[in-house]
Amino acid sequence: MSPYNPFGLQDAELLRHSPYVDGQWIKGDGAPLEIRNPANGGFLGQVETLAADGVARAIEAAARTLPHWRALAAKERGAILEKWQTLIVEHADDLARIMTLEQGKPLAEAKAEVLSGAAFAKWFAEEGKRVYGEIIPPFQNDRRLLVFREAVGVCAAITPWNFPSSMIVRKTAPALAAGCSLILKPAESTPFSALALVELAQRAGVPPGVFNVVLGEPAVIGQVFTRHPSVRKISFTGSTRVGRLLLAQAAEQVQKVTLELGGNAPFIVFADANLEAAVTGAITAKFRNAGQFCVAANRILAHESLFAAFVERYAQAAAALKVGDGLAADSQVGPLINRKALERVQALVDDAVAGGGRVVTGGKPHALGGLFFEPTVITHAAANARLLREEIFGPLINVQSFKDDDEAIRLANDTKYGLASYFYTRDINRLLRVSEALQFGMVAVNTPIIAAESSPFGGIKASGQGREGSRHGIEDYLELKTVWVAEDR
Ligand code: ADP
Fold first, then answer.
1. Strand-pair partners of 404
2. Cα 78 to averaged position of ligand 1 atoms, centre (Å)
3. Residues 365 and 409: beta-carbon distance below 8 Å
4. Catalytic residues, which ones?
5. SS3 for 297?
6. How many CB atoms lie within 10 A of CB 49?
7. Does the pTM of the predicted model rise above 0.85?
8. What are the tens digits of pLDDT across the range 249-276?
9. Is the CB of residue 421 less than 8 Å from the CB of residue 438?
10. Where are the beta strands (DSSP E) in 30-70?
């Protein structure tokens, strides 16, 4: 029997199995990581990992190359980033296949993610050229006051498995454009997507030592990143639990920290909403990536006048979604990332039902077995049900009804999180009033899509700090330096 080898890439060199430090694919000295396909448990390969010393060497390589990289003209760094973007687009089919195999999402979603990530490389290639300083009118006429905006220095990026490609480009492209060197630690279940991006960055001409990737024990790597005096910034996307931990650890060296953490997005359907559009929007906002994304709709609030009609149509649409292996052309909902995630989704259903929640559709593992779960719609969950209070990260949601705008806003804001929020209305006054009242970093009106390279992405409260994308996305990688100059009279 031939071994399971599902990759079949057009460019086999994209499949890398080891850390990349100082321009070299290096042998690890830690325990190797086994990577499996969540759709069928198939063994995809193993990657080498580094212990603490190896991670420190990667930081030192980044620190050594920093002066050279920072000294290049923004246009030169931009040209390399544009080349990276071009290569990512050229290899999008291979990159998508790698992602679906290790992460599980449908191939079309994986390809869309690869392309949307690539767009950040081009965007920041341009933004890097617009890092303007200032000349401030002096308080005395023999003085000049200048403000430079300079690269922060060596950055460490820690990324999650749910968007294993775009999260990386979103962090590394602004860092590189600003003149920072960096060390990336991708999630342990999706290293192949990260390593393929680095292979392409190397081909694009990123010099040795500027962009390093380490793999290994997350807690150990996090400690090395936060204890090493050369690391000036940590950029993290992941759970609020780990984000808090890193923020506390970063206090030791007073590192700058950007955090994209969990969410608990409300999705409000007002009485005047276009019902059809709201149903379709709520399907996308909940079920893409099997619900495993931080801006996923987490609670639907439907006005009492259309509650019954909404629930009926929404449950029908959810039940019609095709669950299956992401490589199958018609799959719309892939597997969950691992057994723990599946068990957690089941526990959230059971908790809701125990508190009076009614399952309208789904509610249990899918007949396909493995890590597949049925798209699930619940109603009447109790106010303290876990699926209303916690980030769900799975294909499951409750729909509750509300009486008026004040109640909808109060319920929507009743969470420690503040990342994304959604609402559907056709009333222009309500649009403005509700947008202002929602306590979230992002508000989507009549659309389920909330991310693009031109848009500031990020949250408030327990959802994090800092923004990625847009002209603001490069700010976190820059420091101000004030220069006073006195005339020598
Ligand atoms: P999720 O629950 O989505 O996996 P995590 O916050 O656990 O979210 O993971 C996001 C990223 O953080 C991953 O790359 C993971 O390896 C990393 N990570 C987990 N624990 C730590 C830690 N103690 N220090 C640094 N990074 C960590």
1. none
2. 30
3. no
4. 260, 294
5. strand
6. 23
7. yes
8. 999 999 999 999 999 999 999 999 999 9
9. yes
10. 33-36, 43-47
